[in-house]
Design brief:
Elements: H1 3-14, H2 18-30, E1 34-35, E2 40-44, H3 47-61, E3 67-71, E4 77-83, H4 86-95, H5 107-112, H6 115-126, E5 127-129, E6 138-142, H7 145-157, E7 163-167, E8 170-175, H8 178-188, H9 191-240, H10 249-260, H11 266-272, H12 279-298
Antiparallel strand pairs: 1-2, 2-4, 3-4, 5-6, 6-8, 7-8
Length: 305
Amino acid sequence: MSFSNKVRQEICRSINDKDKRFACLYGMLLFCRTLSPEHICFQSESAVSAKVFSGLFSSIFRVKPECQNSVRRSGTVMYTYEIRDSRLTEEIFQKYRLGKDVRTIDPEIVATNSLGVFTAGVFLACGSVNDPEKEYHLEFAVPQEQLASELALLLKDIGVTVGRVIRRGQHIIYIKGSESIEDTLTFMGAQQCTLDLMNVKIYKDVRNKANRIANCDAANIDKVVNAAMRQIEDIRLIEGAGAFETLSDDLKEVAMLRLENRDMSLQEIGESLSEPISRSGVSHRFKRIARIAEGIRTGSVKNER
């Protein structure tokens, strides 16, 4: 089941009294595809949303709307409820104080009943949310510009950051930030889905941190290996030039340890010496060996005893 449908199902379980049913259906009607005194059309690709619409409408208007199903080329099913009975549409417009020309949110209706459940109805009518495993994205595809502006303002009033764009003639109100999506889901009554999203985010954060640590460790290993290879190259060069025996005892000791232990860190070499020294002390000795090797390469050998 998609994450969107999980949200829809949880919303359904929260619509448990008369006021909430009234507010939720208001959101679904106000944001449906077609809304006029002559014709009301509610469409959804979600069987959950279709079932909620039918149940709420039957409960409030005592009429069971007829559903028409059509299969699209993509294989998805479109659920369509059309209401053309003038007496019924007039009753709907009067009960919800709907405007005949311009759709607008009636603040008195949503305040009296439930603003959160009204928003849930809007989501059931035209909302969707991506699987948080893939992307943090929630959106509403709103049919009219003024309605989109009012929805954006409503969401901003509860502290949610939204964006707007027009896509295929529809006004899209979208939310990208995970925290804003969590706030929206909670506001609509989908608290368990909020927790699911938070768990996914925690898992992602832990996984990303583990990857960063692993990458850092790998980079450090590469640095140690590359440094060791340069040190061994310098030591072999000194040996090949017959200058190894001219090194001081402290340089010979670190050189022999490096040749015998290519994977040792500077710290480990320092701890393995006959008289242990710090990592920086070992680094200083290898720098002296490097200067001797460079002198051999350039023909200007200096005494580093």
